[in-house]
Amino acid sequence: RKEVEQDPGPFNVPEGATVAFNCTYSNSASQSFFWYRQDCRKEPKLLMSVYSSGNEDGRFTAQLNRASQYISLLIRDSKLSDSATYLCVVPTGGGNKLTFGTGTQLKVEL
Amino acid sequence: DGGITQSPKYLFRKEGQNVTLSCEQNLNHDAMYWYRQDPGQGLRLIYYSQIVNDFQKGDIAEGYSVSREKKESFPLTVTSAQKNPTAFYLCASSIAAVEETQYFGPGTRLLVL
User: Fold this and answer.
1) What is the CA radius of gyration of chain A?
2) N-to-C CA span, chain A
3) pLDDT per residue as tens digits for the range B14-68
């Protein structure tokens, strides 16, 4: 299994839809996980941190399943402005570095 | 305002030339990182530094060099040994190196003439 694996998409959804992305990881020792958002030709920006079973911030919910080694990101009531690539990030190398997934592209349409 | 700055935004390299990318942070973070991103690919770690005067190779260090003489600065040199340097280079920093959130600068796009 790759260290971090994501479905590249793209996910094309209508405005107002609920969409979910999954991310699988191989390092079972990881304690914290992150979702970043990256707009086209820009730097990644932190969306959410996940330290226990999950985290919720407004329309965004991240859930962690340690037994199956996957993290999910749920976006409710999608906005046009949510269109971006979402990167799943997992600590590796004994926790001294982060490994980034290749990202899942989301396109929210009218 | 606290943050991470990278310069230049665009950089052009000629064959056989070494170029240096600047990264500065005023967040008082101990750890700093350099990543490379190619189109349609994820970020790959080039070098990282957990503390001043110390740094470690990442996954793709060949053809690159770094220094960490000051806490605020972590410049990356792309040497002539790097045969495929065209990419988007991102610098990041975190409070410490262990499982901490990393914050990114705006990036430098390097193109080969």
Assistant:
1) 13
2) 37
3) 888 999 999 999 999 999 999 999 987 889 999 999 999 999 999 999 999 999 9
Q: Which helix (H) or strand (E) holds A97?
A: strand A97-100
Distance CA B56, CA A40 (A): 29
Judged on CB neighbours under 10 Å (0-12, 13-18, 19+), B6 is buried
Instruction: Answer yes or no: do B43 and A44 touch at CB < 8 A.
Output: yes
Query: Within its chain, how far is the Cα of A66 from the centroid?
Result: 15
Determine the residue type at A8.
P
A63-109 pLDDT, tens per residue? 999 889 999 999 999 999 999 999 999 988 776 788 999 999 999 99
Mutation site, A47, A92, A98, A100, interface B, largest B CB count within 10 A? A98
DSSP sequence for A41-70 = TS--EEEEEE-SSEEEETTEEEEEETTTTE
Smallest CA–CA distance, residue A95 to chain B, in Å, is: 5
CA angle B55-B58-B59, nearest 5°?
Answer: 165
Indicate yes or no: CB of A96 within 8 angstroms of CB of B41: no
Assess contact for A19 and A11: CB atoms under 8 A: yes
From chain B, pick out residues whose CB is under 8 angstroms from the CB of A42.
106-107
